[in-house]
Amino acid sequence: MIRVATDWKDYEIIATGEGQKLERWGKLVLLRPDPQVIWKSAFPLEKDKSINARYIRSNQGGGRWEYKGSVPESFNVERKGLKFSLKLMGFKHTGLFPEQAVNWDIMQKLIKDSNREIKVLNLFAYTGGATVACAKAGAFVTHVDAAKAMVDRAKTNADLSGIPNDRIRYIVDDCQKFIAREIRRGNKYDAVIMDPPSYGRGTNGEVWKLEDNVFDLVAECTKVLSDNPLFFLINSYTTGLQPQVIDNILRITLKAYKGESQAYEVGLPTKEGLILPCGCSGLWTAKGLKV
Known about the structure:
single chain, alpha/beta, Immunoglobulin-like, Rossmann fold, eight-stranded mixed beta sheet, five-stranded mixed beta sheet, 6 helices, globular
């Protein structure tokens, strides 16, 4: 099953091929690598005259942006009242994953339909796409990320989207350490979101590998769930990790709660009429909820 992010006016994939995708972000046209694009394109994408910037990978790892036109230091995009300030960042990123709009819509509906105050914990929260979406729907969100620059950009996005200051609590911290402290403090949440990296190192050199650590992290996170949890969402961009694996993790770790889980690929439509797969998600919801 694949859920496709639609309703974008400030973003679209124009064309794909040879490991690349040609995209429009507002008025800015970018050419970026994408490992899922293993097919050929109808024309050489790098020769498109509308390109403002292209990300070129290095054989030694990483890469660089090559500018072909005027590129502002930052630029804004909007979807359904959610506004984001973006910029060209290292390792091909802009600061937003537009395919996650699929999950924003789901979470907003769950929060609005709950008819109660919902506390959300967003781990590995990056620049706050999910944070802003949940807060816009009326939830109180705790936003946790180890990178201060990303948390600062999340604050900017919340301001752009008109989120009241008391709706979001921002934490710059290692997510695993934060969870351990929340368990000791007895703090509880009605929903948990996590978008853990495939690989990383902690502040003291601790190694994080998704396949080795995600089960234990999810199990720990269930200890901060309230008695009446609404949802638990896991996102993954790790190549080779199947959606069913995430579904199994949710089924095992949340078996004490009455609910249902599902897993699915997330994707984006292209102007060529294709669907570009962009990772996968696993979603647990309280019993009887429709998404």
